[in-house]
Amino acid sequence: xxxIIVDGGKPLFGTIEVSGMKxxxxxxxxxxxxxxxxxxxxxxxxxxxxxDCFAILESIGARITHVxxxxxxxxxxxxxxxxxxxxxxxxxxxxxxLAGAMLGRFGKAKVGLPGxxxxxxxxxxxxxxxxxxxxxxxxxxxxxxxxxxxxxxxLCGKNIYFDCCSVGATINAILAAVLAKGSTILENxxxxxxxxxxxxxxxxxxxxxxxxxxxxxxxNGVERLHGCEYSIIPDMIEAGTFMVAAAAxxxxxxxxxxxxxxxxxxxxxxxxxxxxxxxxxxxxCVSYEGxxxxxxxxxxxxxxxxxxxxxxxxxxxxLANGESAMSETIWSNRFRYVDELRRMGAKITVADKTATxxxxxxxxxxxxxxxxxxxxxxxxxxALATKGITTIEDxxxxxxxxxxxxxxxxxxxxxxxxxxxxxxxx
Length: 426
Ligand code: UD1
Known about the structure:
alpha+beta; 4-stranded mixed sheet; 23 strands; 426 residues; UDP-n-acetylglucosamine1-carboxyvinyl-transferase, Chain; binds uridine-diphosphate-N-acetylglucosamine
């Protein structure tokens, strides 16, 4: 069993490089299916979720060639309209993008219902609504989503209104619509940067997707796509995690390869706490000494405060010099990190989807678990802010989404290592 061991309480100093965005990469990789050609993707994060996407595509006939550590050539010409093994598909949430991509290319898709982090109920009703509106018949079972369209009619563009902002349903609707006949209009789509990245990738392949990142997306169907070379945007959540780590350890990090605009909400909340954030063209510099002011944070769809930064930000709220609150509006199970932070001495109560932090916490070392990807990242940040040795278990979650997190933090002075314990001893 692998664990992360942190001897914390020391400030992080130096330059840290952010990798490509996990949530954009996993969507763009599945979107390559629609190109029916060769795509070269650059700035891909080397994480297990990306490796799982490749395994899924290879299982249905794609050829994947690793050009360098973060550049991969994907040839989707030999993909069959086959079903990827359920065991592979269930390893990650984003495998549902295969449904939109296969439906768009072959007019049919059968994909196992996805796994990923257990963040509470994760319905797919909006994905189903989008496929049905475009003319597909959809069957949902406990294990599968299956969509087919009458081959003579094919998918046809329509207006689709989303009752709530769903990243997954928005991207799946775009994937299904790019090769449909006529125009599709998405109303109230998700506006996250990764939605924009998928649209930009598809446009580079010859699609006509307009308005991604705004409240209306228009997709004019085209007959075919072609391959392209495309670079994935930097990961705003990895960047945000390092921003919080700089403040929590009272250090100074120059966080490079970011798009500062994507970080605006995180930056605003850090500044509200009294943390210094300097913005550069492709970097931010975060530093802090002294006491942090307590604040209230509420997660919301982009451009609101990202739910994927909730657990990491909560570590700072524990350290503020008074009572803070974090309200979660997206995932009911987001609060699983709370018990772990309590193990480290934090005083937190949770009621009505809001966590209240007493503040002024002096974390004490403990053995804690990564309950999910972002909760695991929060444990790393808390451990870095804690004098003494903290052990973090179940680190596979963290490795789903963070590239070489141990090496990156070591390079800015963190005393952190990954240790492989034999199972009996662990
Ligand atoms: C994506 C991200 C995840 C992030 C989340 C919210 C990926 C691979 N994952 O997940 O890291 O936490 O966005 O920013 O990009 N909903 C419905 N019906 C649906 C779909 C969603 O009611 O058919 C609801 C969900 O229950 C949730 C909200 O919409 O409350 C947002 O979910 P969604 O944006 O779809 O999340 P994911 O795409 O799964």
